[in-house]
Design goal:
globular; three-stranded mixed beta sheet
C-alpha cells in the first residue's frame, strides 16, 4: 500500500472530462521513478498512490502536461 496519494483532475480545454486516460507521475532524484499507471474515471479524476514526495511531472497519455508538488491535488488540461 502506498504511503501517499495525489489526485489529478484531467480536463480537455473545452471543459469536458476524459474517461480512461492513462496518468503517471514521474519523480526525479535519488528515489525517482515513475508511478504505476492509473486511468481517469468518468469525472476525469486519477488518484495515484506513490512513495516519493516533492516535485513530480505529470504525464497523460505519455505526454508531459505539467508538474506539481506531491502529495496533493492539481488540475491539468489536455
Amino acid at each position: 500500500m502506498s504511503k501517499h496519494h495525489s489526485k489529478i483532475y484531467v480536463s480537455y480545454k473545452d471543459g469536458s472530462k476524459p474517461y480512461g486516460k492513462e496518468v503517471v507521475l514521474g519523480f526525479s532524484g535519488f528515489f525517482g521513478g515513475m508511478t504505476t499507471p492509473v486511468y481517469t474515471d468518468r469525472e476525469g479524476v486519477a488518484i495515484i498512490g506513490h512513495e516519493s514526495t516533492g516535485k513530480a511531472d505529470i504525464y497523460v497519455g505519455g505526454k508531459k502536461v505539467g508538474s506539481f508538488n506531491t502529495p496533493g491535488e492539481t488540475v491539468v488540461f489536455i
